[in-house]
Amino acid sequence: MTDPLDLLALDSALDTEERQIRAVVRRVVDDRVRPYVADWYERGEVPVRELAREFGRLGLLGMHLTGYGCAGASAVAYGLACLELEAGDSGVRSLVSVQGSLAMYAIWRYGSEEQKQRWLPAMAAGEAIGCFGLTEPDHGSDPASMATRARRDGDDWVLTGGKMWITNAPVAEVAVVWARAEEGVRGFVVPMDTPGVTAREIRRKMSLRASSTGEIVLDDVRLPADARLPGAEGLKAPLSCLTEARYGIVWGALGAARDCLATTLTYATTRTQFGRPLAGFQLTQAKLADMVVELQKGQLLALHLGRLADGAGVRPDQVSVGKLNNVREALAIARQCRTILGANGVSGEYPVMRHANNLESVLTYEGTSEIHQLVVGQRLTGLSAFA
Questions:
Q1: How is residue 207 annotated by DSSP?
Q2: What is the pLDDT of residues 366-387, one digit of tens each?
Q3: How far apart are CA 193 and CA 198, in angstroms?
């Protein structure tokens, strides 16, 4: 049966393997996420370990990486997985993104062989949860000003500082922590049971409630010399990890938008007002038409970036274009869908308000819209407006 939201027949641009991977992820979301996510969101709790093991069995954790138990899938296949995961909930996609595109990717690209062998197979299987410690309480969009410090003490390193808004931190076995040393920004693999490391769950969130988010405090944490990521030198290293995660968001945000639009289309064609279905009114059809156009444009953009990534490579500023556009449009779609559902749009019985609330966080993390506008502006003009 033809998907009414695939007006441009974009499925024809996917190969058989890509469609099969998408179908597998869609099934696991339908079975393991959709029946429970509204309750997770309401309670502000999510079974991270259970989901991680399930995703690990399917090869979704670090799926675009090679070796060490990782699936070695294409960038497009990974993007499709992110889309299906976020159609369930942004928090669920964040679990996979932080695990694979931030924590695992940092170790995979910049770590020693010993670090890779120790952590990546367990993380790919979902037996070890990872987090990525870059954002700080006073330094979000400006990581170059990070206050966390790493100093040498003999052969050891001693880390002092704090990280904030760290997905998976309260349940993680390992953190990739970025700190400023005399030589510049350096990355460290920090087991969370190391003395001096504490993680606190952040409560009272109004967004991403089906996600474990925490603060990490580093109180003179002593690490051996081999805890440092040997290939990570300077701020470009953590920023390259952010580009990996942003790419997943380019696809993922469209999953939330698609779920809102699919829900709304069903609602509008079955809900009767003034003697006809809501979908029979011109204003409703205009809203639906505008939303599906933006959804399909976003999917075309995501697919193009994915093909670039699988070919010659995709630039960070190109990923910024995708993150800026797709998250902004996904949030607009969620808000518009809410208007068609009327009062039911704010009910937890429907996913629309949950997706809209989640997308407010997605709009901010991995670079705000303003940051991505400046990235694109610098590419256009050759002038940096960051300082």
A1: S
A2: 999 999 999 999 999 999 998 7
A3: 8
Q: Residues 6 or more apart from 155 whose CB is under 8 A from it?
A: 224, 225
Kindly state the tokens that stand for 354.
């949950």
Dist CA 297 CA 234 (whole Å): 36
Q: What is the pLDDT of residues 184-216, one digit of tens each?
A: 999 999 999 999 999 999 999 999 999 999 999
Residue with tokens 């607009």: 332
Quote the pLDDT of residue 186.
97
Query: Confidence band (pLDDT; 50, 70, 90) for 365?
Result: very high
Residue 233 bridge partners (DSSP): 186
* pLDDT at residue 101 greater than cutoff 80: yes
Does 1 score more than 70 pLDDT? no
Tell me the two tokens of residue 80.
């499709």
- Please state, as a whole number, how many other Cβ atoms lie within 10 Å of the Cβ of residue 47: 15
Extract the runs of DSSP E, i.e. beta strands, from 54-113. 66-67, 70-71
Return d(Cα 76, Cα 247) in angstroms, integer: 10
pLDDT band at 140 (very low <50, low <70, confident <90, very high): confident
Please report the pLDDT score of residue 142 as a whole number.
Answer: 87
The mean pLDDT value of the chain amounts to 97
Decide: 188 and 227 in contact? Cβ < 8 Å. Answer: yes
Structure tokens at 373: 């506008």
Predicted pLDDT of residue 144 = 84
DSSP of 141-190, one letter per residue?
Answer: S-GGG---EEEEETTEEEEEEEEEEEETGGG-SEEEEEEEETTEEEEEEE
Tokens of 304: 């193009």
Judge whether 366 counts as a catalytic residue: yes
| Contact indicator for 98, 169 with CB cutoff of 8 Å | no
202 Cβ contact partners less than 8 Å away, ≥ 6 residues apart: 164, 165, 213, 214, 215
The one-letter code for the residue type at 73 is A
| Pairing, β 276-277 against β 174-181 | unpaired
Residue with tokens 């699936």: 71
Rounded distance, CA 272 to CA 103, Å?
49
**What are the structural domains, with CATH classification, of the chain?**
10-124 (1.10.540.10), 130-234 (2.40.110.10), 237-381 (1.20.140.10)
Catalytic residue (choose from 136, 215, 294, 366)? 366
Give SS3 for 131. strand
